[in-house]
Amino acid sequence: MSDDTIRLATVGRIFRRRRRLIAVLAVVGALVGYGTSMVFPPRYTASASVLLPGAWEERELLTQVEIATSSSVLDRTAAALGRPGVNGAALRDRVSAKTTDGNIIKVSGTEDTPERAQQLADRLAQQFVAFAARITGGGTETEAATAPAALRQKVVDTNRRITDLAKAADTGQSVESVQARTVLQKLSTALEEAMEKLERAESATDKGGLVVMGPAPRPTGEAPPTRIQLVVAGTLLSVLLTIVGHLTAARMNRRLRTEPEIAAALGSELLGTVDVPADHSAQRARGPRARIRRLLGTDTRWDVPAPQTSGDETSRRIRYRRLCARLREQHPAPRRLLVVVPRGDGIAGLAAAQLVTEAGSDPSANAADRGCPELRVVEVPVDRPMVPDSDTESGALVVLSAGTWTAGELAGLAGACADGGHDVVGIVVAGPVPAGPERPAERTPDDAAPALAVRGHATGEPV
Fold this sequence. Notes:
Layout: H1 8-17, H2 19-39, E1 44-51, H3 58-68, H4 71-81, H5 88-91, E2 95-100, E3 104-111, H6 114-135, H7 141-168, H8 175-206, E4 211-212, H9 227-252, H10 259-266, E5 270-277, H11 278-284, H12 288-296, H13 313-330, E6 336-342, H14 346-360, E7 374-380, E8 393-401, H15 407-419, E9 424-433
Parallel strand pairs: 5-9, 6-7, 6-8, 8-9
Antiparallel strand pairs: 1-3, 1-4, 2-3
Helix pairs in contact: 2-9, 4-6, 7-8, 10-15, 13-14
């Protein structure tokens, strides 16, 4: 896992094998989100629209947005609200403004009740319009509306008077007549230019006439994040953190999970793999922590290949007998072997005990030079490995489970075997599998024979 690319299949395997843990953590995350929503009260947001008549450039609209949330407007809004202890600085985090299509600025206010939010948005829009009209420097609204109209009417009357004078002037070709008509034509042209300037000035003046487009509607729902959003966010965040935690732990985990890696670390060959029913391995692990691990589904590894469903007891015994047959073929002469099991590896301990039982009940055990080697089991601590000295044993058979030990720990175990005068003659990898349907196992006359192996001690004490 540490060298593999993370794929969707890996995430899917985490969901399949850790579904109970993920479900529990998802519920915890939902409860945390719900608790967070109880700490922070609900918020409501109301918005009012302000129309900016005339032609406005984008940078001018952005300037108006900044004015809407400026300290001057906020101070005036706080004064208009008349709430005790509320000033412009307190409103800065509760209001906002943004531009929309059609020269419209939407100002918003957020409060703890819909009524207060609506009131804040309305007061903010009113004070924004009033402040914008003040900085444009215009007079009263009546004067601003009547003065251009009166001036335009005077210009129209003057232009008509000039036309009448031009018609009444002498139509002769005298110098005085020509000069009079020229002066009148220049005066008419000047008036037309003045009218154009007046219209442009009126258009620019109209930009200051901001209009509030009605009162802000009262909000009917909470502003995000709502309680439901916090619950969903807590659930998703807990699931995401669980997946990331599993992937990070797998990346940092240096325990060997494949048979070739285990064989290379111990410097020997793999004789075979055996299985241990999951219910038997669960019986070995007892206590509150073991029960919690079984309840959450963390008692099995998720980063190892999926275990094959075990057959009945007869099928499992056949696999152990085939392993004994391989030992008999490699060591035909009668000999004793030391079965080394890392201390704390419960699955390997169960597999070693079953292997000893099958070796003792081997049908050819009593035949000369054809029986399975006698086996003696010892548990060796991997932190300070110590294997009994070679006495009558002529080799060591290492039984362990995959994904439990690192390469350094297995190398130390192999070194301890060498120090005790034992050659590692083979490796057996054990793994837990779901227990299949139980059927009566086939019994042979030799099944009743006592086991030829006994359990030893890693300290080398006599057995």
